[in-house]
Amino acid sequence: GHRAVMLSVWGLTIIGVIIIFAHAKEWVYDKSNHAVHNAHPIVGFITVLSAFAQPIMAAARPHPGTPKRSIFNWVHRMVGFSAYVCGSTALCGVGVVYVFVCLT
């Protein structure tokens, strides 16, 4: 269930990053227009970091019933939800703006 989905996310993220850099060839940072030109790659990068942090955090998960388990559960949920929100934003929000503003 959950582990299989997370392994799929890891694998698809790696494939996605490879495809992006194969197409773009490099990380481009536009100093002239920070908000529009840089939002998509920055939010995407945060998403990738969050996606890779999740299974690493899960490997260090405290045993059920220990005092730190509830803290872990909240942090794990927040990082996962943040990855979801950032990924959705990079794809549907700033990604769409990037395509229409920067590539036209």
Question: Nutshell version of this structure?
Answer:
With 104 residues, the protein is an all-alpha fold. The protein has three helices and no strands.
Task: Give a topology summary.
Blueprint: H1 2-24, H2 34-59, H3 67-102
Helix pairs in contact: 1-2, 2-3
Describe the structure.
Helices cover 82% and strands 0% of the residues. It is elongated, with a radius of gyration of 16 Å. The termini are far apart. The mean pLDDT is 82. It has 104 residues and is an all-alpha fold. It is built from three helices and no strands.
Q: What gross morphology would you assign?
A: elongated
Mean pLDDT score: 82
The helix-strand sequence is HHH
> What is the assembly state of the chains in this entry?
single chain
**Proportion of beta-strand residues:** under 5%
Tally of separate helices: 3
> Which parts are unreliable, with pLDDT below 50 for 5 consecutive residues or more?
none
> What structural category do the secondary elements indicate?
mainly alpha
Alpha-carbon distance between the two ends: 42 Å
